[in-house]
Amino acid sequence: MIAAVAALMAAQAAFAADGQLIDGVYGEAATASKIRMARVGVTKDWNPNWSWFDSGNTHLTGYWDASAGYWQGRQYKNVPGDKQHIVDIGFTPVFRFENKNKLGFYAEIGIGAHLMSETYNNNDDRLSTAFQFGDHIGVGYVFNKNWEVAVKMQHFSNGSIKKPNSGVDYGVVKLAYRF
Fold first, then answer.
1. CA dihedral in degrees (73, 77, 78, 81; nearest 10)?
2. Is the pTM of this model over 0.70?
3. So which residues are the signal peptide here (predicted)?
């Protein structure tokens, strides 16, 4: 609870820094064994004065990510052809190592909280809680300060809060537009 309040206070301070509520929008498509996912989201850059490891033309900075996703399992309860439909809402702070001019290649890593509409039970994989941690690592390319593409590996797990917790790993493709 304290961590949630601290995150909200930090987000409010970041949003107030430039008066703009969001800095970008994106869509993602992902796939894993017997499951597909589509996700949309909005991002908000951290305060531009918050950067680390400034070295010439690069630095480490970050952004807040709020998302909504749809999962379609294609082997619900391990029965071929049975479907499971899950809605996922997430909030993730993301660290990004990028060029200071925000062009070219970047690398990022993030871990956040996700709430699912039901517990996941698909293709021998089970997540026994609706609350999940979603972490990712990715690389991308920004074309003209507006459009970017990325590939990511994402992992969902409840951190062994409750068993079973086999985890779910996705390969993700992202297309984003920054304002």
1. -50
2. yes
3. 1-16
